[in-house]
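Entry type: protein chain
Record version: 2
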Amino acid sequence: MSIKVFVDHGFPPGKEFCVQFLSSNEFTVETLRLILSGTGKLKKAELAVHIANALEKGKLTSDEILLAYVKQARTWLSLKIGMCDRTLNLNSSASLLQEFGQDGWYGPIQEPNQPKKKWYIRTYRIVDYVRRGSGTASQLDERYIRWSVIAEVDEDYLALSWDGFTYSSTVDEHIEQRTQFPFWNHIPGFFDELANHCQAQWTHPNLHQLVLHDMWDKYLNKSINGVRYKWKHLRIRAEASGLFINAHSSGIQEIDVRGLQALSQKLAHSVLSILGLSGDPEKISNVEDAILFTLIKDWGTKSYEFELDRELIANEIETFELDRELMPNEIETEILKEVKLKPIIKAHCYFGLKPNSKTQDSLQHSKCHSGYYGGSTRVLEFLLRELGL
């Protein structure tokens, strides 16, 4: 099974552990190639061995490996803003390359040319179970998952990023069905731990206001300095006045968000017909927009997924055409077709409006799309820019 966390099957500490960690889904092939130059033709397992050998011989430092590791884009992101000017000296991050370690914080990891920015790693051990064999000969195996949450700390913000995964627990020797690991129960505590270490007071920015009001008003159907932006509504989850809305732009099991647009259109025509204004296209369009905006903006939206692209200017089109050939296969086909659009951000934002909930609606965070949208790295850069940081 392929999950984006390190699963320890009892690897001995030292070089073998290092090779297994580098070979795991915690590292992408692209990251391994950045760590050790001149290895473009090697497969992932071969890259892991070469890097472990280079580390053992002193040709690479642990910080060079770990810096590339912490800077990888991940799926999930949660951001807080506030001031911090302290450098924490926590557990040795180099040890994570050699052994499983204990739960806790490791770091700092720094870039020589960015002394104010630091990374820390919070590890957390999860017991996972798998059944080997079948029938009466089967047996229950226990293994450990090392879940790592990356903290990026700068003068005026703290960002946590991580990947999700599924795992199995047991009840009376029976393996439970694999379920999503409830990261939302742990991330707030990790924020608090760092705040205590740093004696800092970080707070979440108002993501609801930023996305559904400030950014929407700035980019939706707008041009900035002559460049047009294209904003797509992809998914909303909203609840107000006893009505729950769950709409998605694609997928068989969920309502198409275009259904909301169709509903807005029907309601607009109905209202304007009663008022004797159904023949006015401009009024119809304005009423449709008003209804749709109410459903998305004001209907108790708990989470919202969107995509923002911008038109390429003339001197960018040729470069983008060349970049398309290097795009990974999972890139959305629409982007490949719409050559004149440059992807900026694609994210599903959870606004944390149910702090006492046992679901991820209790935590303000974002699911960040990878590929050409750049995952958590690109989303963080964009949010910091919009916040003026």
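Comment: The chain is about 30% helix and 30% strand.
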